[in-house]
């Protein structure tokens, strides 16, 4: 099981936090902080596994992370997950983001955290890996975006209609 | 004009959207909280509007604020409103907010049941998918119960996307509503063979999670998984399956045997490191579970170790880390194979990556031998000097002690070396392992009788230079070593070369800064040393004549009497009490000395501390039998009307005897009892009161009175006085250096006998240790477990009740092979579904009733099966023949001509196993047609079940052979 997925930047600012186990907001912030402290002091050329922090999990849990430019992607998982598998999953996640945002950078995550969540929801569900095939993930995301677009255009036209209607009557 | 109006409408709709919020926060870095507070006010206004799009916008912003650590649970009702929107866009926003902010205890969840149900049954697969994703984050027990049936329905959706999500969702349902597991399990099992690989993978994932906690219930699925493992090419799924097998093999050695070959093939063939690593892990688990009796056993282990070596040698730090991790698993059972890679592991100790060093440290445990222990410890000590973080240094310290003390100091040949290592460890700054070092010193001193002289000499030096240890406040825990030092010096005072100097060290004024329990030990051991000096001053008879000796004794007494009051004034109760007693005793001796009646007093005092202290087994206290007729809960006296302050010390005392970590217990008890500083008068008053109380207390030894009466018989003139030969006190450089022993070891390996200067410290040892050869241990270790109360024996694991009562998996530990009972159904609410459900329910009931008779017949089958699983052998009785050929090797299968019949019997009892039986070749080809086949199988199954048992074996055989034909035709 994946217990939490955290994305934060080099200064520890959270860019995405997904907890698959309930923690209140204060605790969530503390976990992010602690995780950042654990991860940020490590060089880039050391291994990507870290025995879990004290706040989340315990001995059975590991932090598996990757560092991309300004962002850390951290997965907190228990022993039922394969370490290398999760590393691959992070790669899939980031590559998917890259495809969806076209050359993803931190700003994309800052301004579209909701979209990042939607993408993540296609990879992981309730702490379990849902899909790892990138083309499948991308199709699902695109289809849902299409649905949304359809609604927005419908909505806009509705707004126009009502406005026009008001205009005509007034 | 028209355009402006449209624009106005739009703007009202998106007053400030998420992007504006984020931008605003970024532009207001200086007064972020103020800005956000303002935003929250706006959001509250927006939430009050009727327009759903405004609300959705507000909720989206709240979701962002939640990530920043703001509690937004006040808006949960609005979140539900947005979730219930008919627009996918808003629904999505609502579900996202819900999945981020709701949790199983959120109260408004009960309002969502029908809405979520509607979404689950939505025509759009994305709406249903949305509901599933969201629900997986906040499902509560109530929701799980009410929606279980709807999710079950989705398991057979035509869309793989939904099936996949529903399968994963079932796991969450099981956790919150364990009663669902049994009725839902058959359906879940079907999903293991779903035509869509994503669904398959999800099902594997769920079963793995379930089986991880209760593996024995899922053994019957092994054949299905085995088939998947040998046919699938999906690495993700393979990893999960292989991990699952790792959990199953300890329960079923025969499964392990079957696994070795395909796993070995995978190890050879796969290019994916993750898969390779998991295969190795599972092979290790298999090899651990099959302790012996495998012919190619060693080749497998060799293969694993070789592959792991490649991983460790890889430049990728991740592989290195995992390689070491897996090595440590092999180490437990096959230490020899790991030991051959010692060079590599020692190399990893120098790695720049702390995680890797820590893993390598774990392995060291198995790397040490008598020969290399000193070298390895030396290396660790160097690391410890270099280490920056205290946590890593602490880890090193505890590892050094762990590898040295393992198996009752099995690898230590020279205890002088070990003691000097421990003494060197006391110089480590800021470690938390002071008590550990102290314990080791005590343990070695007690267990290794021959080393005592050396330990005592070293400890005397430590006491003399205690400021080195207590000098820095950050070394707080290292002062525990003084506890050990004081005790060792006092207890084995006969080995002290200069008791007076040590006594002085104990009496030094600085001592009063130490923690209370250490001071208490100081006082106690001051008296031991005092008694020792009195007796060693000469024979009782000559005391009076020898004025020099008498003067020396008087001097010592004066010193003790002068310094003890500083202990009496201690704020620690225990110290105070002991010091008062000690002071009175010394004053009394002084009086007798002046009267000239002190002869034999020394022996009297020594006899106070008579008797050898032996190690006590850790569980001894627990094992003390309660004598017959003793009721521990009964009041001994009438219960006091109320707790008076006088009883306080009595109340605290029990913690001294608290079970568990004795060390901690008494440290705590001292720390928790810090009475206010008392004035001399109060001390006096308290003391009188206490003495009064002690006089009435039958548990107190009234030593003073006894001594007084006896002492009258002695004449002070007869007190013996001997020449005190006090050499110059050793200085701190005299502390033994562990390096010296390492060098010595190296030298002795070339030359047998070497004499070094430094060894003059203990003459006794010089002779013995020189003669001894390296290979033979210098000292005999008392390896007893320790004393136990009479009649009690050691038992292992008696206190192992670590099971977490809150673990939801406890409730999921149910037998899944047992047929369903009538009442075991998923609860249904809506009318329409109830009809649907009844159909399935009937079906189940029908199956069940027909199975019932059979179950009576075969009620023995299950236990027999288990028996077989445990023994791995087959009984001869034909009806009790082993159930299914999956467990058998091919050869075994051939050798058993009669199995077919009984095999069939069980096969229909255990559906999952049936599927794997001997059709491995044809199975992967036609997935669509397999469904048909399954239907046929089930029909034949049901019909055969109706037949009476005696005749049904041949019948069944026929149906089965028909079935086989079907299969052949199908394929």
TrEMBL record, chain A:
Identify the residues that the record assigns to the AP complex mu/sigma subunit domain, covering every copy: 1-147
**Does the keyword section mention Protein transport?**
yes
Matching Pfam families? Clat_adaptor_s (PF01217)
Key words, A-Z: Cytoplasmic vesicle, Golgi apparatus, Membrane, Protein transport, Transport
Membrane topology type, per the record? Answer: Peripheral membrane protein
Source domain of life is Eukaryota
Task: Give the UniProt record's GO annotations in the biological process aspect.
Answer: Golgi to vacuole transport; intracellular protein transport
Q: Name one GO cellular component term.
A: cytoplasmic vesicle membrane
Q: Which InterPro entries match?
A: AP_complex_ssu, AP_mu_sigma_su, APS3, Clathrin_sm-chain_CS, Longin-like_dom_sf
Where can this protein be found? Cytoplasmic vesicle membrane; Golgi apparatus
The main location class comes to membrane
| Keyword presence, NAD | no
Assigned protein family = Belongs to the adaptor complexes small subunit family.
General function of this protein = Part of the AP-3 complex, an adaptor-related complex which is not clathrin-associated. The complex is associated with the Golgi region as well as more peripheral structures. It facilitates the budding of vesicles from the Golgi membrane and may be directly involved in trafficking to lysosomes. In concert with the BLOC-1 complex, AP-3 is required to target cargos into vesicles assembled at cell bodies for delivery into neurites and nerve terminals.
Q: What is this protein called?
A: AP complex subunit sigma
What is the organism field in this record?
A: Cloeon dipterum
UniProtKB/TrEMBL annotation, chain B:
Q: Where in the cell is it found?
A: Endomembrane system; Golgi apparatus
Q: Membrane: is it a keyword of this entry?
A: yes
Keyword terms of this UniProt record:
Golgi apparatus, Membrane, Protein transport, Repeat, Transport
Composition bias type Basic residues, residue spans: 749-766
A GO BP term here is:
anterograde synaptic vesicle transport
Bias (Basic and acidic residues) ranges = 682-691, 806-843
From the record, give the transmembrane residue ranges: none
State the source organism's domain of life: Eukaryota
Q: Which residues form the AP-3 complex subunit delta domain?
A: 678-817
Which InterPro entries would you find in this protein's record?
AP3_complex_dsu (IPR017105), AP3D_dom_metazoa (IPR010474), ARM-like (IPR011989), ARM-type_fold (IPR016024), Clathrin/coatomer_adapt-like_N (IPR002553)
PANTHER family attached here?
Answer: AP-3 COMPLEX SUBUNIT DELTA-1 (PTHR22781:SF12), DELTA ADAPTIN-RELATED (PTHR22781)
Instruction: Quote the protein name from its UniProt record.
Output: AP-3 complex subunit delta
Task: State the species of origin.
Answer: Cloeon dipterum
